[in-house]
Design a protein that fits this description.
Layout (H helix, E strand, L loop, with lengths): L11 H11 L3 H16 L6 H19 L6 H18 L10 H4 L8 H9 L6 H16 L2 H5 L7 E11 L24 H13 L4 E6 L8 H13 L3 E5 L5 H10 L3 E3 L7 H7 L8 H5 L1 H7 L4 E5 L7 H18 L4 E5 L18 H14 L5 E3 L5 H10 L3 E3 L28 H10 L3 E3 L5
Parallel strand pairs: 1-2, 1-8, 1-9, 2-3, 4-5, 5-6, 6-7, 7-8
Helix pairs in contact: 1-2, 2-3, 3-4, 6-16, 7-16, 9-10, 10-11, 11-14
The chain binds iron/sulfur cluster (SF4).
Iron/sulfur cluster binds next to loops.
């Protein structure tokens, strides 16, 4: 029975016994495995019913991951890996090693030499100038094209300028630090595809081509189909959209890629699972494992660009950022043909008196951005308008290669009369896109409105 369970280590009996003994839904899950085996044996991998089966097996796997460590030791791990490969085969995707981000982030062998160098330099005893000099030199080396270096006017590098486009602030999650969380009484707005497109056109008129579509997590409204429709409409207008939305299944990410998403940004918020649980009390986001593997799923679905980040202020950056670096190194090993970008959004204001437990000052933020440049010399580093103009200008001169400008964090916020719509977080750099672009050009940067400019 269940030939797919015999692959790798662990006997089939021990695993099926384990399911019978510990799984409250053993009959259901064993019959799911039988159905999966039947689908593979009859050559139906990749068919709609096999893909649906793959989705059910994925959900079962995440239930196991959620309770990992409770009981069953190696049988749980073995089963989790087997289910991963089984779902992958059923869905008709190319064979691959099981996802292993849970182990990878605890494994120092993923630290590359450049990550080690960055972590040595980020020590508070090392003068800041050592990091800034090194970061500046690496950014210049890797982000200036030969043509640009011949131009006396261009003393810096290419800077991609983008805007976030918030399409919905409806959200069922309860993230203690977020102004969008349920059930805070803010003006809720969910844009239709036409309304989102009006916003996109408004941004295009201001010069933008690359837009980041952002939305809360409200499963009945912010569906994959909803985002796919918006993405298709944007692409038809000549825009280059990416998404920053709730984690999706591999199947759903594939739909977004098909619709024209050129990238996904997904911050883990914190890599400390205990703190993660404390901050994410209810809703789908409470699942640490589902979020942690999201970039694996996006990459498997073909997403070209993956954006990582942690929310600065939630946990000790000396814990979180090195683990994020390891996460990126793990993904780079698995998907060497993708682009990996990083951002360090910092909490400046939070609802209901949420006290930021690990605030860091501007100098420390500079230190960490420079450390990211040293760890990943060719990676786009992204900076939002959460930070003020002065700090953004300083960071732009050191290592940033992509920055938002003229942003609104409220759905419909680019309309003239948008004052009463709820914002996720306050925008600190209030300069318009044109003002930011002028400053960049005067400072010797080549302003690009999309990656392919
Ligand atoms: S952080 Fe995201 S998921 Fe959490 S409440 Fe805010 S919008 Fe929703």
């Amino acid at each position: 029975m269940n030939r797919m369970l015999t692959e790798g280590t662990g006997s089939v009996e021990s695993i099926t016994n384990w399911i019978s003994q510990y799984d409250q839904h053993a009959d259901h899950h064993l019959s799911l495995l039988e159905a999966a085996e039947a689908a593979l044996n009859t050559g139906r991998a990749g068919s709609p019913d096999a893909r649906q089966l793959a989705g059910r097996i994925e959900r079962w796997r995440y239930q196991l991951l959620q309770h990992e460590g409770e009981e069953g030791s190696w049988q749980t791990e073995t089963l989790v890996d087997r289910l991963d490969r089984l779902a992958n085969r059923l869905a008709g995707r190319p064979d691959r090693l099981p996802r292993s981000i849970g182990q990878a982030i605890q494994d120092s062998r993923f630290d590359t030499d450049s990550i080690r160098e960055a972590l040595e330099l980020v020590d508070p005893h090392v003068p800041l100038s050592e990091l800034t000099d090194r970061a500046f030199e690496l950014t210049r080396r890797h982000f200036r094209s030969p043509t640009e270096s011949r131009s006396a006017a261009l003393s810096r590098w290419r800077m991609v300028v983008y805007a976030p486009l918030y399409v919905s602030n409806q959200c069922i999650n309860y993230c203690t630090y977020c102004g969008f969380r349920y059930p805070l009484e803010i003006a809720r707005r969910h844009l239709s595809c036409d309304q989102a497109l009006d916003q996109a056109r408004c941004l295009r008129d201001r010069g933008f081509r690359h837009l980041l579509v952002v939305g809360g997590d409200f499963p009945h409204r912010t569906t994959t189909g909803y985002y796919a429709e918006i993405l298709r409409a944007m692409v038809a207008e000549g825009l280059v959209p990416a998404v920053e939305i709730a984690p999706q299944s591999t199947e759903s990410y594939a739909e977004l890629v098909q619709a024209g998403a050129c990238g996904v940004t997904l911050y883990q918020e914190t890599y400390d699972p205990i703190r993660y649980r404390e901050y994410h009390l209810r809703g789908p986001k409470a699942s640490y494992a589902w979020r942690l593997e999201a970039l694996d799923r996006a990459a498997e679905a073909g997403m070209a660009r993956l954006g990582l980040g942690v929310l600065i202020g939630l946990a000790d950056p000396y814990h979180d950022i090195p683990i994020m670096m390891r996460h990126a190194a793990y993904l780079m090993n698995r998907f060497p043909d993708r682009t990996f970008a990083f951002s360090l959004p910092r909490i400046h204001a939070a609802p209901d008196g949420f006290q930021v437990p690990f605030p860091i000052d501007d100098q420390q933020l500079i230190r960490w951005y420079c450390a990211l440049r040293i760890a990943f010399p060719r990676a786009p580093l992204v900076l939002s308008t959460r930070e003020g103009a002065e700090l953004r200008n300083r960071l732009a001169h050191l290592c940033i290669t992509q920055m938002s400008a003229g942003s609104s964090t409220a759905p419909g916020g680019y309309e003239d009369d948008a004052a009463d719509t709820g914002e996720q977080f306050p925008v600190t750099d209030q300069r318009t896109a044109a003002e930011v672009a002028r400053w960049l050009e005067r400072s010797g940067f080549q302003v690009c409105w999309s990656w392919d400019d």
